[in-house]
């Protein structure tokens, strides 16, 4: 019985280490005119459409379960969202949905444990004069 407990502890530790090393993932669907890629640090987030002239470039989505907390996972997802937007030349993202979803399950001693991932999506835009 003690060996099973040690195996479980080692497995949980291994999963935690693997999760900490995992990067966020993202997707991009180009819906407008793609521009040359820019530095993700130049991408600004908007909670609503900016009042200035802008053009829609793509729909972007990112998720992460890599953080030690939900907030850290969300931070990783937002960073990936900016990477996705920057890769199509967008200098802004109008935020859409944010939240968490079940990312999958981990089996330990024939018991399935769900884990959550933080998800963020939005519309990648190019804001003139920014």
Q: Could you walk me through the main structural features you see in this protein, from its secondary elements to its overall organization?
A:
With 130 residues, the protein is an alpha+beta fold. It contains 2 helices and 5 strands. A 5-stranded mixed beta sheet has the order 1-3-5-4-2. The longest helix is centred in the first third of the chain and has 20 residues, at 2-21. The mean pLDDT is 83. It comes from Ruegeria atlantica. Keywords: Signal. Residues 1-24 form the signal peptide. This is Lipoprotein.
Supply the number of structural domains: 1
- Give the number of helices: 2
**Helical fraction:** 25-40%
* SS class: alpha+beta
Q: Which CATH architecture would you pick? A: 2-Layer Sandwich
Could you give the topology of this structure?
Layout: H1 2-21, E1 25-30, E2 44-46, E3 54-64, H2 70-87, E4 92-108, E5 111-127
Parallel strand pairs: 2-4
Antiparallel strand pairs: 1-3, 3-5, 4-5
Q: In short, what is this structure?
A:
By secondary structure, the chain is of the alpha+beta class.
Please name the defining characteristics of this protein.
single chain; 130 residues; alpha+beta; Translation Initiation Factor IF3; five-stranded mixed β-sheet; 5 strands; signal
